[in-house]
Amino acid sequence: MLQQIKKRKPSLPVILMTGWGSINLAVEGMKGGASDFINKPWNNEHLMQALKTALNLSDEPESPGTLTRKKLNEKYGFENIVGEDPQLIEILQTIARVSKTDASLLIMGESGTGKELIAEAIHNNSNRSHKAFVKVNLGGISSSLFESEMFGHKRGAFTDARNDRVGRFELANKGTIFLDEIGDLDLNSQVKLLRVLQDRTYEVLGDSRSKTVDVRVVCATNRNLKAMVAENQFREDLYYRINLIIVRLPPLRERADDIPLLANYFLKNLKEIYDRPNLKIDTKASNWLKYLPLPGNIRELKNLVERAVLLSEKDTLEVKDFEQHLEQRQAANLSSGLPVGTLSIDEMELSMIKNAMVFHQNNISRVAKALGLSRGTLYRKLEKYNIPYETQN
Ligand SMILES: Nc1ncnc2c1ncn2[C@@H]1O[C@H](COP(=O)(O)OP(=O)(O)OP(=O)(O)O)[C@@H](O)[C@H]1O
Fold first, then answer.
1. I need a surface site. Which of 67, 124, 268, 302 has the fewest CB within 10 A?
2. What confidence tier does 234 reach under pLDDT thresholds 50, 70, 90?
Protein backbone atom coordinates (compact mmCIF):
# COMPACT_ATOMS: atom_id res chain seq x y z
CA MET A 1 0.00 0.00 0.00
CA LEU A 2 2.85 2.40 0.83
CA GLN A 3 4.35 1.77 -2.59
CA GLN A 4 1.02 2.46 -4.29
CA ILE A 5 0.49 5.69 -2.33
CA LYS A 6 4.01 6.91 -3.05
CA LYS A 7 3.48 6.14 -6.75
CA ARG A 8 0.18 7.96 -7.04
CA LYS A 9 0.81 10.88 -4.73
CA PRO A 10 4.51 11.13 -3.93
CA SER A 11 4.15 14.28 -1.83
CA LEU A 12 1.59 12.78 0.57
CA PRO A 13 3.35 12.06 3.89
CA VAL A 14 2.77 8.54 5.23
CA ILE A 15 3.28 7.28 8.77
CA LEU A 16 3.30 3.54 9.20
CA MET A 17 1.91 1.98 12.33
CA THR A 18 2.07 -1.62 13.37
CA GLY A 19 1.60 -3.99 16.25
CA TRP A 20 4.02 -6.40 14.56
CA GLY A 21 7.03 -4.14 14.47
CA SER A 22 10.18 -5.78 13.28
CA ILE A 23 13.46 -4.20 12.36
CA ASN A 24 13.24 -5.27 8.75
CA LEU A 25 9.74 -3.96 8.35
CA ALA A 26 10.68 -0.59 9.84
CA VAL A 27 13.72 -0.29 7.62
CA GLU A 28 11.75 -1.34 4.53
CA GLY A 29 9.10 1.25 5.37
CA MET A 30 11.56 4.10 5.81
CA LYS A 31 13.38 3.12 2.62
CA GLY A 32 10.05 3.08 0.84
CA GLY A 33 9.51 6.71 1.77
CA ALA A 34 7.47 6.58 4.99
CA SER A 35 8.16 9.60 7.13
CA ASP A 36 7.87 7.66 10.37
CA PHE A 37 7.24 4.21 11.75
CA ILE A 38 5.36 3.87 15.00
CA ASN A 39 4.92 0.74 17.09
CA LYS A 40 1.74 -0.07 18.99
CA PRO A 41 0.92 0.66 21.71
CA TRP A 42 1.80 4.23 20.84
CA ASN A 43 2.44 7.26 22.98
CA ASN A 44 -0.09 9.98 22.16
CA GLU A 45 2.35 12.85 22.41
CA HIS A 46 4.88 11.11 20.23
CA LEU A 47 2.22 10.31 17.67
CA MET A 48 1.10 13.95 17.56
CA GLN A 49 4.68 15.06 17.21
CA ALA A 50 5.23 12.62 14.33
CA LEU A 51 2.06 13.89 12.60
CA LYS A 52 3.06 17.52 13.02
CA THR A 53 6.56 16.86 11.70
CA ALA A 54 5.25 15.06 8.64
CA LEU A 55 2.74 17.84 7.91
CA ASN A 56 5.18 20.68 8.51
CA LEU A 57 7.75 19.12 6.24
CA SER A 58 5.25 18.72 3.45
CA ASP A 59 4.03 22.32 3.39
CA GLU A 60 6.49 25.09 2.76
CA PRO A 61 4.60 28.33 3.13
CA GLU A 62 7.55 30.70 3.01
CA SER A 63 9.75 28.54 0.79
CA PRO A 64 13.19 29.56 2.10
CA GLY A 65 14.57 27.58 -0.86
CA THR A 66 14.62 30.80 -2.84
CA LEU A 67 15.97 33.15 -0.16
CA THR A 68 19.28 34.92 -0.72
CA ARG A 69 22.13 34.86 1.78
CA LYS A 70 21.19 38.34 3.01
CA LYS A 71 17.52 37.48 3.51
CA LEU A 72 18.47 34.23 5.27
CA ASN A 73 20.56 36.24 7.74
CA GLU A 74 17.74 38.71 8.34
CA LYS A 75 15.06 36.09 8.87
CA TYR A 76 16.99 33.35 10.62
CA GLY A 77 19.96 35.07 12.27
CA PHE A 78 22.62 33.12 10.37
CA GLU A 79 25.21 35.96 10.51
CA ASN A 80 27.62 33.81 12.50
CA ILE A 81 27.65 31.12 9.81
CA VAL A 82 29.99 32.72 7.33
CA GLY A 83 30.29 31.78 3.64
CA GLU A 84 28.92 32.44 0.18
CA ASP A 85 29.50 29.01 -1.31
CA PRO A 86 26.40 27.71 -3.11
CA GLN A 87 26.60 24.42 -1.17
CA LEU A 88 26.52 26.33 2.12
CA ILE A 89 23.64 28.53 1.01
CA GLU A 90 21.65 25.46 0.06
CA ILE A 91 22.31 24.03 3.53
CA LEU A 92 21.13 27.24 5.17
CA GLN A 93 17.98 27.14 3.04
CA THR A 94 17.35 23.55 4.14
CA ILE A 95 17.80 24.26 7.83
CA ALA A 96 15.63 27.36 7.56
CA ARG A 97 12.90 25.17 6.10
CA VAL A 98 13.11 22.34 8.63
CA SER A 99 14.06 24.09 11.87
CA LYS A 100 10.47 24.71 12.94
CA THR A 101 9.53 21.07 12.44
CA ASP A 102 10.57 18.33 14.81
CA ALA A 103 12.25 16.36 12.04
CA SER A 104 15.43 14.56 13.03
CA LEU A 105 18.55 15.66 11.21
CA LEU A 106 21.84 14.00 10.48
CA ILE A 107 24.70 16.41 9.88
CA MET A 108 27.66 14.87 8.10
CA GLY A 109 31.03 16.46 7.55
CA GLU A 110 34.70 16.27 8.36
CA SER A 111 36.02 17.49 11.66
CA GLY A 112 35.81 21.27 12.09
CA THR A 113 33.39 21.92 9.22
CA GLY A 114 30.79 23.53 11.49
CA LYS A 115 28.44 20.67 12.40
CA GLU A 116 27.85 21.92 15.92
CA LEU A 117 27.31 25.47 14.71
CA ILE A 118 24.62 24.24 12.31
CA ALA A 119 22.98 22.13 15.04
CA GLU A 120 22.77 25.21 17.27
CA ALA A 121 21.30 27.29 14.46
CA ILE A 122 18.58 24.67 14.01
CA HIS A 123 17.76 24.76 17.70
CA ASN A 124 17.75 28.57 17.81
CA ASN A 125 15.25 28.70 14.97
CA SER A 126 12.99 25.99 16.36
CA ASN A 127 9.96 26.31 18.60
CA ARG A 128 12.17 24.78 21.29
CA SER A 129 14.68 27.64 21.35
CA HIS A 130 13.70 28.78 24.84
CA LYS A 131 14.48 25.29 26.18
CA ALA A 132 17.79 23.48 26.52
CA PHE A 133 20.22 22.55 23.75
CA VAL A 134 22.10 19.58 25.17
CA LYS A 135 25.25 18.43 23.44
CA VAL A 136 26.50 14.89 24.02
CA ASN A 137 29.78 13.71 22.60
CA LEU A 138 29.03 10.03 22.11
CA GLY A 139 32.63 9.33 21.16
CA GLY A 140 33.62 10.22 24.71
CA ILE A 141 31.17 7.98 26.56
CA SER A 142 32.24 4.44 27.38
CA SER A 143 29.77 1.69 26.72
CA SER A 144 29.51 0.81 30.42
CA LEU A 145 28.49 4.37 31.33
CA PHE A 146 26.16 4.96 28.39
CA GLU A 147 22.87 4.32 30.18
CA SER A 148 23.82 6.21 33.29
CA GLU A 149 24.97 9.24 31.24
CA MET A 150 22.01 9.29 28.91
CA PHE A 151 19.15 8.15 31.14
CA GLY A 152 20.49 8.95 34.61
CA HIS A 153 20.67 6.74 37.69
CA LYS A 154 19.31 6.47 41.19
CA ARG A 155 21.58 6.43 44.19
CA GLY A 156 22.76 2.86 44.81
CA ALA A 157 21.83 1.63 41.30
CA PHE A 158 25.41 0.34 40.98
CA THR A 159 28.52 0.36 43.17
CA ASP A 160 29.74 3.83 42.27
CA ALA A 161 26.33 5.49 42.21
CA ARG A 162 26.61 7.56 45.40
CA ASN A 163 24.06 10.17 44.35
CA ASP A 164 21.13 10.45 41.97
CA ARG A 165 22.16 11.57 38.53
CA VAL A 166 20.01 13.33 35.94
CA GLY A 167 20.50 11.90 32.46
CA ARG A 168 21.07 13.91 29.29
CA PHE A 169 17.67 13.05 27.85
CA GLU A 170 15.97 14.47 30.90
CA LEU A 171 18.09 17.64 30.68
CA ALA A 172 17.07 17.99 27.03
CA ASN A 173 13.36 17.41 27.66
CA LYS A 174 11.24 19.84 25.53
CA GLY A 175 14.47 21.05 23.92
CA THR A 176 17.00 19.62 21.47
CA ILE A 177 19.55 16.87 22.03
CA PHE A 178 22.65 17.03 19.84
CA LEU A 179 24.30 13.62 19.53
CA ASP A 180 27.78 14.31 18.23
CA GLU A 181 30.04 11.55 16.83
CA ILE A 182 27.14 9.12 16.57
CA GLY A 183 29.28 6.87 14.37
CA ASP A 184 31.47 6.11 17.39
CA LEU A 185 28.68 4.42 19.33
CA ASP A 186 29.14 0.68 19.95
CA LEU A 187 26.43 -1.76 18.89
CA ASN A 188 25.12 -2.37 22.41
CA SER A 189 24.58 1.31 23.05
CA GLN A 190 23.02 1.71 19.60
CA VAL A 191 20.19 -0.65 20.65
CA LYS A 192 19.56 1.40 23.79
CA LEU A 193 19.55 4.66 21.87
CA LEU A 194 17.23 3.23 19.22
CA ARG A 195 14.65 2.36 21.82
CA VAL A 196 14.38 5.87 23.22
CA LEU A 197 14.34 7.43 19.77
CA GLN A 198 11.64 5.04 18.67
CA ASP A 199 9.29 5.02 21.63
CA ARG A 200 10.40 8.20 23.43
CA THR A 201 10.52 6.21 26.65
CA TYR A 202 13.42 5.09 28.82
CA GLU A 203 14.16 3.97 32.35
CA VAL A 204 16.46 5.65 34.84
CA LEU A 205 18.97 3.06 36.14
CA GLY A 206 17.75 1.71 39.45
CA ASP A 207 14.17 2.81 38.83
CA SER A 208 11.74 0.50 37.09
CA ARG A 209 9.24 3.19 36.06
CA SER A 210 9.32 4.28 32.42
CA LYS A 211 9.82 7.96 31.69
CA THR A 212 8.73 9.70 28.55
CA VAL A 213 10.74 12.38 26.85
CA ASP A 214 9.93 15.02 24.24
CA VAL A 215 13.08 15.95 22.31
CA ARG A 216 14.23 17.04 18.89
CA VAL A 217 17.15 14.86 17.85
CA VAL A 218 20.04 16.21 15.81
CA CYS A 219 22.97 13.87 15.16
CA ALA A 220 26.38 14.49 13.65
CA THR A 221 29.21 12.34 12.40
CA ASN A 222 32.40 12.55 10.41
CA ARG A 223 32.12 8.88 9.45
CA ASN A 224 30.38 7.26 6.53
CA LEU A 225 27.38 5.71 8.30
CA LYS A 226 26.04 4.10 5.16
CA ALA A 227 29.29 2.19 4.68
CA MET A 228 29.22 1.28 8.39
CA VAL A 229 25.71 -0.12 7.92
CA ALA A 230 26.96 -2.26 5.03
CA GLU A 231 29.74 -3.57 7.29
CA ASN A 232 27.33 -4.25 10.16
CA GLN A 233 29.00 -1.69 12.39
CA PHE A 234 25.98 0.57 12.52
CA ARG A 235 22.39 -0.59 12.88
CA GLU A 236 20.34 0.04 9.79
CA ASP A 237 17.15 0.73 11.77
CA LEU A 238 18.95 3.38 13.84
CA TYR A 239 20.36 4.90 10.66
CA TYR A 240 16.88 5.34 9.21
CA ARG A 241 15.57 6.66 12.50
CA ILE A 242 18.05 9.54 12.61
CA ASN A 243 18.34 10.55 8.97
CA LEU A 244 14.96 11.97 7.98
CA ILE A 245 16.88 15.02 6.76
CA ILE A 246 20.57 14.77 5.85
CA VAL A 247 22.85 17.80 5.69
CA ARG A 248 26.36 17.36 4.22
CA LEU A 249 28.80 20.07 5.17
CA PRO A 250 31.52 20.42 2.54
CA PRO A 251 35.17 20.42 3.63
CA LEU A 252 36.87 23.78 3.35
CA ARG A 253 38.95 22.67 0.35
CA GLU A 254 35.71 22.39 -1.66
CA ARG A 255 34.80 25.98 -0.82
CA ALA A 256 38.17 27.68 -0.98
CA ASP A 257 36.65 31.02 -1.94
CA ASP A 258 35.08 31.15 1.53
CA ILE A 259 38.51 30.98 3.19
CA PRO A 260 39.31 34.73 2.98
CA LEU A 261 35.76 35.55 4.16
CA LEU A 262 36.13 33.27 7.16
CA ALA A 263 39.65 34.50 7.95
CA ASN A 264 38.40 38.10 7.95
CA TYR A 265 35.42 37.18 10.08
CA PHE A 266 37.70 35.62 12.71
CA LEU A 267 40.00 38.62 12.46
CA LYS A 268 37.08 40.95 13.11
CA ASN A 269 36.34 39.15 16.38
CA LEU A 270 40.01 39.16 17.38
CA LYS A 271 40.26 42.92 16.75
CA GLU A 272 37.72 43.39 19.52
CA ILE A 273 39.08 40.76 21.86
CA TYR A 274 42.67 42.06 21.69
CA ASP A 275 41.72 45.66 21.15
CA ARG A 276 43.72 45.98 17.92
CA PRO A 277 41.26 47.78 15.61
CA ASN A 278 43.73 48.15 12.71
CA LEU A 279 44.44 44.46 12.20
CA LYS A 280 44.13 43.24 8.62
CA ILE A 281 45.30 40.47 6.36
CA ASP A 282 47.15 41.65 3.24
CA THR A 283 45.74 40.65 -0.15
CA LYS A 284 48.55 38.28 -0.99
CA ALA A 285 48.15 36.38 2.28
CA SER A 286 44.38 36.25 1.85
CA ASN A 287 44.84 34.60 -1.50
CA TRP A 288 47.60 32.32 -0.24
CA LEU A 289 45.35 30.96 2.53
CA LYS A 290 42.99 29.60 -0.14
CA TYR A 291 45.56 27.04 -1.23
CA LEU A 292 46.30 25.57 2.17
CA PRO A 293 45.12 21.97 2.65
CA LEU A 294 43.60 22.63 6.15
CA PRO A 295 42.49 19.08 7.07
CA GLY A 296 41.08 20.48 10.33
CA ASN A 297 38.86 22.76 8.23
CA ILE A 298 37.31 25.87 9.77
CA ARG A 299 38.55 25.14 13.28
CA GLU A 300 42.11 24.90 11.96
CA LEU A 301 41.75 28.15 10.01
CA LYS A 302 40.40 29.89 13.09
CA ASN A 303 43.36 28.70 15.19
CA LEU A 304 45.79 29.71 12.47
CA VAL A 305 44.43 33.26 12.32
CA GLU A 306 44.44 33.55 16.08
CA ARG A 307 48.05 32.35 16.35
CA ALA A 308 49.16 34.74 13.62
CA VAL A 309 47.47 37.64 15.44
CA LEU A 310 48.99 36.70 18.79
CA LEU A 311 52.51 36.31 17.51
CA SER A 312 52.70 39.20 15.09
CA GLU A 313 53.41 42.67 16.36
CA LYS A 314 52.40 44.34 13.12
CA ASP A 315 48.80 45.12 12.26
CA THR A 316 49.00 43.85 8.69
CA LEU A 317 49.39 40.09 8.59
CA GLU A 318 51.46 38.74 5.72
CA VAL A 319 52.10 35.27 4.36
CA LYS A 320 55.10 34.75 6.61
CA ASP A 321 53.00 35.44 9.72
CA PHE A 322 50.88 32.42 8.88
CA GLU A 323 53.57 30.33 7.29
CA GLN A 324 55.72 29.85 10.34
CA HIS A 325 52.88 28.06 12.14
CA LEU A 326 52.31 25.70 9.31
CA GLU A 327 55.57 24.20 8.19
CA GLN A 328 55.70 21.47 10.80
CA ARG A 329 52.18 20.32 10.25
CA GLN A 330 52.54 20.37 6.48
CA ALA A 331 55.50 18.05 6.79
CA ALA A 332 53.55 15.72 9.07
CA ASN A 333 50.69 15.80 6.63
CA LEU A 334 52.73 14.48 3.77
CA SER A 335 53.30 11.19 5.47
CA SER A 336 49.61 10.60 6.13
CA GLY A 337 48.94 9.28 2.59
CA LEU A 338 45.82 9.18 0.46
CA PRO A 339 43.47 6.27 -0.15
CA VAL A 340 44.56 4.09 -3.09
CA GLY A 341 42.95 5.12 -6.36
CA THR A 342 42.49 8.77 -5.41
CA LEU A 343 45.28 10.10 -7.61
CA SER A 344 47.81 8.78 -10.11
CA ILE A 345 51.49 9.37 -9.31
CA ASP A 346 51.63 12.12 -11.96
CA GLU A 347 48.56 13.86 -10.56
CA MET A 348 49.95 13.66 -7.07
CA GLU A 349 53.30 15.03 -8.21
CA LEU A 350 51.59 17.87 -10.05
CA SER A 351 49.48 18.79 -7.05
CA MET A 352 52.46 18.61 -4.66
CA ILE A 353 54.56 20.86 -6.86
CA LYS A 354 51.73 23.36 -7.31
CA ASN A 355 51.07 23.47 -3.56
CA ALA A 356 54.75 23.88 -2.78
CA MET A 357 55.04 26.72 -5.34
CA VAL A 358 52.14 28.57 -3.73
CA PHE A 359 53.37 27.83 -0.23
CA HIS A 360 56.88 29.11 -0.93
CA GLN A 361 55.70 31.87 -3.23
CA ASN A 362 57.52 30.52 -6.29
CA ASN A 363 60.91 30.52 -4.59
CA ILE A 364 62.55 27.71 -6.58
CA SER A 365 65.29 26.89 -4.07
CA ARG A 366 62.83 26.53 -1.22
CA VAL A 367 60.38 24.50 -3.28
CA ALA A 368 63.15 22.17 -4.45
CA LYS A 369 64.37 21.74 -0.89
CA ALA A 370 60.86 21.11 0.46
CA LEU A 371 60.24 18.45 -2.20
CA GLY A 372 63.67 16.84 -1.90
CA LEU A 373 64.58 17.59 -5.54
CA SER A 374 67.56 19.28 -7.15
CA ARG A 375 66.76 22.61 -8.76
CA GLY A 376 67.47 21.09 -12.17
CA THR A 377 64.95 18.30 -11.62
CA LEU A 378 62.40 20.78 -10.33
CA TYR A 379 62.80 22.94 -13.45
CA ARG A 380 62.27 19.88 -15.66
CA LYS A 381 59.12 18.98 -13.78
CA LEU A 382 57.80 22.54 -13.96
CA GLU A 383 58.28 22.35 -17.74
CA LYS A 384 56.65 18.93 -17.92
CA TYR A 385 53.52 20.07 -16.08
CA ASN A 386 53.46 23.50 -17.65
CA ILE A 387 53.62 25.29 -14.31
CA PRO A 388 54.67 28.94 -14.76
CA TYR A 389 57.85 30.06 -12.95
CA GLU A 390 60.58 32.65 -13.10
CA THR A 391 64.18 31.53 -13.49
CA GLN A 392 66.07 32.42 -10.33
CA ASN A 393 69.78 32.27 -9.58
N1 LIG B 1 30.55 28.87 8.55
C2 LIG B 1 31.19 29.23 9.67
N3 LIG B 1 31.34 30.54 9.96
C4 LIG B 1 32.00 30.93 11.07
N5 LIG B 1 32.55 30.09 11.96
C6 LIG B 1 32.43 28.77 11.73
C7 LIG B 1 31.74 28.29 10.58
N8 LIG B 1 31.77 26.94 10.63
C9 LIG B 1 32.45 26.60 11.74
N10 LIG B 1 32.85 27.70 12.41
C11 LIG B 1 33.66 27.72 13.65
O12 LIG B 1 34.66 26.72 13.52
C13 LIG B 1 34.83 25.97 14.72
C14 LIG B 1 34.53 24.51 14.50
O15 LIG B 1 33.14 24.34 14.22
P16 LIG B 1 32.26 23.18 14.88
O17 LIG B 1 32.70 22.88 16.27
O18 LIG B 1 30.83 23.51 14.66
O19 LIG B 1 32.71 21.97 13.93
P20 LIG B 1 32.32 20.43 14.00
O21 LIG B 1 32.13 19.98 12.60
O22 LIG B 1 31.18 20.22 14.96
O23 LIG B 1 33.67 19.80 14.57
P24 LIG B 1 33.90 18.31 15.18
O25 LIG B 1 33.58 17.32 14.12
O26 LIG B 1 35.39 18.33 15.46
O27 LIG B 1 33.05 18.21 16.40
C28 LIG B 1 33.90 26.62 15.74
O29 LIG B 1 34.63 27.58 16.45
C30 LIG B 1 32.84 27.30 14.88
O31 LIG B 1 32.27 28.40 15.52
1. 268
2. very high
